[in-house]
Every structure is written in structure tokens, then in C-alpha cells.
Amino acid sequence: MKHFALVALLGALIVGCGGAGDTSRLPSLYLGSWSGTWNSSDANDTGAISFTVATDGSMTGSITTKTGTGTLGGLIDKNGNLNAVASFTTGGNNMIIGGAVLMSSGRVSSNFSYVQMGVQYGGSFDCGAGSTTGTTGG
């Protein structure tokens, strides 16, 4: 009987200590290289986008618009919140980007808003793992 009580107590302790705990040190769900296309019907713009997400969620890459290619830098946090800036060589033409990133079937996508030259637009992207041809993975 004492053995049963000890096993029951240990079981209760193990179940009671469950949960995710501190997940801030876990690798980013979005870790890896991604590329695909983006578009904005608001701004009548579209192009290629590619980026790499590091273990800590930081991202670097590039985005192409009708007026040129810019460097992309920012963060996708563990909840999928995207905050990034695209810097272009043409003066004052930076994009400040914010939105939510979703992962499904080995692809990442986002509906986001961005501010460029003081005007807010809506946009979206859909990317596969390191390919503009729709290769999936992650």
C-alpha cells in the first residue's frame, strides 16, 4: 500500500509540473530560409521576397518592388508577430512592416501592413522553404 501511495504521489507531481514553462530559449518556429512572392493591391505593387530567420527569430533578407530591391531586417517573435524594415537605396523609400506570420504545410505567409513614404498600405506574402517555386519544408 505504501508503494502505491508513493507512485501516486510521484505521478501527481509529474503531472503538476507539466506545461511549457519558459519558451523564450526555444528555437524560432520560423527558423530557416524562405522565399516566394509578395503583393499589395493597395499600392499596385508586387515582387519577390526572401529571408532567413535565425534561432532567436531575427530575420534578414531582401524584397523587390516595382522601383527596386531593398534589404530586409527585423524579427518574427515566438508568437508570429512580424516587425521589419525594408531599406532601399532610393532616399526615404523605406518600408516599415508589421503583421502576423502563419505557418501551414511547410509554408509561411502573412497579411501585413506597411508604411512607405508616409502612406499605409496592406500587403501579403507566401513563401516556401528557400524556393520561389513552391518547395515546401521548413
What is the string of helix and strand elements? HEEEEEEEE
What is the CATH architecture annotation of the domain at 32-125?
Beta Barrel
Taking the sheet with the most strands, its summary is: 8 strands, antiparallel, barrel
Query: pLDDT under 50 segments (min length 5)?
Result: 3-22, 131-138
The CATH C-level class name of the domain at 32-125: Mainly Beta
Order the strands across the largest sheet as they lie in space: 1-2-3-4-5-6-7-8
Strand proportion, as a percent range, falls in: over 45%
Shape: globular
Q: What is the alpha-carbon Rg in Å?
A: 21 Å
Helix content: 10-25%
CATH topology of the domain at 32-125: Lipocalin
**Overall pLDDT:** 81
Tally the helices: what do you get?
1
- What is the tally of beta strands? 8
- Please state the structural category: mainly beta
Question: How far do the termini sit from each other?
Answer: 51 Å
Describe the fold and architecture:
The termini are far apart. Residues 3-22 and 131-138 have low confidence and may be disordered. The longest helix is centred in the first third of the chain and has 15 residues, at 2-16. The chain has a domain at 32-125: Beta Barrel (Lipocalin). A hairpin with a 2-residue loop joins strand 3 (58-65) and strand 4. Helix content is 11%, strand content 53%. With 138 residues, the chain is mainly beta.
Short description:
The protein is globular.
List keywords for this structure.
138 residues; mainly beta; 8-stranded antiparallel beta barrel; Lipocalin
Helix and strand layout, with pairings?
Layout lengths: L1 H15 L15 E9 L4 E9 L4 E8 L2 E9 L4 E7 L7 E10 L2 E10 L2 E11 L9
Antiparallel strand pairs: 1-2, 1-8, 2-3, 3-4, 4-5, 5-6, 6-7, 7-8
